[in-house]
Amino acid sequence: MRTASCVELTLLMLLEWRLRHGYQQKKSMIQSLMLGKVSKVFLGQWISEPEMEKEMNDRYPGCMAGRTMFVIPFSMGPIGGPISKIGVQLTDSNYVLLCMKIMTRVSPHLWETLGDNDFVKCVHSVGCPRPVKRKVMNHWPCNPERIMIAHRPEQREIMSYGSGYGGNSLLGKKCFALRIASVIARDEGWLAEHMLIMGLQNEKTGEEKFICAAFPSACGKTNLAMLEPSIPGYKVRVVGDDIAWLKFDREGTLRAINPEAGFFGVAPGTNFKTNPNAMKTFQKNSIFTNVAETADGGFFWEGMEDEVDKNMAITTWLNQKWHIGAPGKAAHPNSRFTAPASQCPIIHPDWEKPEGVPISAIIFGGRRPTGVPLVFETFSWEHGVMVGACVKSEATAAAEFKGKVIMHDPMAMRPFMGYNFGNYLQHWLNLNAKPHKVPKIFHVNWFRVDSEGSFLWPGFGDNIRVLDWVLRRCAGEQGIAEKSAIGYIPTKESFNLTNIDLKWDELFSLPKPYWLDDIRESRRFLEDQVGTDVPKTIWKEIEDQEKRIQAMTD
Ligand code: TSX
Ligand code: MN
Fold first, then answer.
1. What is the pTM (predicted TM-score) of this model?
2. 408 near 392, Cβ under 8 Å?
3. For site-directed labelling of 340, which of 386, 464, 482, 513 has its Cα 20 to 30 A away?
4. Signal peptide span per the entry (predicted)?
């Protein structure tokens, strides 16, 4: 039993609550903690220890009865590395065990170095004791009505009940490497972020630069991490596609490791055109979840229509007979591949380097159909942190909304924040100090459309042109950028446009009314959701940006 106190609080993720109650709550996370009830704020839900205790006692006693419990010792990051951390997961799911063996470094040798309290404690149960009372669908034991994913950040503990799927059951990933790790990182002076890591080597000079990029879901982060450039000039290699742990070394260089050992990627949309390297990665030793199956035992999902015989008999993820062109979906939209990173043809040779790779640029982005240009460079670290705090993206609509909505997803961390978002922003700001050489911060948008709704930018392999400009800015190249109200914008002459036809002016236009509305809406978001915890520096950046926009010529 633990005693209750105001600081001992539990971060709760109740699935149904996630998106629903967002904009109503006017209190900051800290204020709502005092109410002693679960607060339904947008940036994470919190519950008091005694109430948590009650919820747990309601679920866990006897929850694994009749099942095999597995004990999984795992390392996030290369075993023994200076940035790596150890976890132990208990689970009654063999699916979770198999996925954890791909996604993390599972080794019995971890017991040899493990102390009493230097590991993250992860407990998981599908919440389906035997003999089962309900019908188990498709051999998939779970308890969806009672799902509860809880974190005790101070105790470095994770408790997951009722789900047997993905991020809610593979506790090393979102729960540990983002929610718990962001709290450890705050305490220890580093960052745990929802970012890809990739290397770009200049083929002429041999010089290589590494970048990190954070995007909300449905922006193609995995596709970007494994980019096949459409033009010569760079060799692209992936270090990680989802999570980065970033730490300044003694020289003040920011270094990143990928704490994971595999890719847990969204399957639909992945094919030999959009991501050939992912396709080659999961041809063996991989697990597919909620995808469809072809009659010859292969995998299938939406987006693979050109890669499978059109007469092929297919069984959907719900075990129904189906064929290409038939109504309905073959695979669940959130179906996944789970594949070892080591099998990726463009995995970086240094991807397991214990001290990480040096980061030259941080890129934020979102799915922004209107107003937001292809790329801009922020004015400073502080301006970049503000831009990151205001990241928004078009999301597939929640049940109560019609069509698509633009949702805030600050730093792409909205569902993964382990502590107060205002304090998190202050922690970012504090890193710009003494020996630290902070990287430049950029914002990209691959998804701007014209008045007919057609994409203005070809995306995919052509994104290398954007990264080329980013790296040239990092190298200090002058005369390739122009100052605007929101940041530095590339000059058309400097940008590599060989063999593409573009509506450049439309792609980079900055409509004054749009941007005025945007900055005011962002201010309202921070006021409503973070309140008095927003750092003064961020308010100053917002004010300055509004003034710059006001001064724009219409
Ligand atoms: O992943 C994407 N990226 C990043 C690639 C490195 N997608 C897929 C998003 C869903 C996960 C993109 N979709 C990208 C992109 O850069 N851009 C777009 C939009 C787009 C879609 C199709 C075309 C052009 C742009 N063109 C044709 O289909 C011919
Ligand atoms: Mn992710």
1. 0.94
2. yes
3. 464
4. 1-22
